[in-house]
Amino acid sequence: MKIFIAGATGVIGLPLVRVLCALGHQVTGMTRAGAGVDRLRELGASASVADAFDPKAVHAAIDVASPDVVIDQLTWLPATPADIIKSMPNDTRLHREGGGNLLAAAQSLGVKRYIMQSRGFYLDAPVGQLADETAKLRYAAPGEIGESTRAIGEYEDKVCTSTLLEGVSLRYGFFYGPGTWYRPDGVIAQDARDGKAVILGAGNAVWSFVHIDDAVAATVAALTAPAGIYNVVDDDPLPVAEWMPAFANWVEAPAPTRASGQEALKLAGEEAVYYHLSLTGASNRKAKGQLGFRPRPLLWKK
């Protein structure tokens, strides 16, 4: 296939390009000018230099590539998760405007299939249950998290209800593994070894992770699978109070400290506390059935 990837040099974009090129697909990666161009060419992909916020540039880039499939892997993430809330407005704008530009161009140019990155860790489900693909994102979440979920949810609705192309939304869990924050030599592990890991409140929020290579495999499968929404998460959703100490042990760090609910609000703010008290895990049953998804066990689970 001819495949166009926006965000092609990101955490999932670059390994996805590598696999698709290895499988013999003709890949064009959209990136900004700079080192990303050489990274893509080294893998055997074509590089298209365009700004996602420029609708004319995006349209021209997709027009030249003439792809069968457009994949949106755009993200705006900081170097450290400590800055995630600060970076969210830029990330939200990127999904709303950049994603909107990609989708509009793909529809007007007659692209057959469109695959977008969505969130498998912001899904709204009753306490004690896993969210399936009918779940909506957490639109009522506080602050910038709510802004992000509403923008991504609106984008997901446009993709999956389009009558002009086959829309696929991949709701990934928190990425872990090579190139991510969650790996033995990553920033989260170093923070844990420095004694900075803290469980806020009860730590009862349930997180769904996914190994980056398993996420890539699911994305490749989505090239030909039935259109629709898929939760691309592992089999091991765990509360923060369980996965964080297990992760610390895995990377040979001391056990996390604890902060009460009131202390947590003062220490980290409402949005950070939300990650530790309010998230629910997701079910991967549909992805297993229709994508042939076979995620590895969470590497640090005891």
Task: Write structural notes for this entry.
The protein has about 300 residues and is an alpha/beta fold. It has a single domain, classed as NAD(P)-binding Rossmann-like Domain (Rossmann fold), CATH 3.40.50.720. About 40% of the residues lie in helices and about 20% in strands. The protein is built from 11 helices and 13 strands. The strands form 4 sheets. It has a 7-stranded parallel beta sheet, sandwiched between helices. Helix 1 crosses helix 7, helix 3 crosses helix 4 and helix 4 runs parallel beside helix 5. The radius of gyration is 19 Å and the shape is globular. The mean pLDDT is about 95.
Number of strands: 13
| Shape assignment | globular
- The sequence of SSEs as H and E is EHEHEHEHEHEEHEEEHEEHEHHH
How many domains in all?
1
Biggest sheet details: 7 strands, parallel
Number of H- or I-type helical stretches: 11
Question: Can you tell me the CATH class?
Answer: Alpha Beta
Strand order of the largest sheet: 3-2-1-4-5-6-11
Distance between the termini: 41 Å
CATH topology call: Rossmann fold
- CATH H-level homologous superfamily name: NAD(P)-binding Rossmann-like Domain
Low-pLDDT segments, ≥5 res: none
GO cellular component, one term: cytoplasm
Pfam family, one: Epimerase
Organism: Variovorax terrae
Domain NAD-dependent epimerase/dehydratase: 3-232
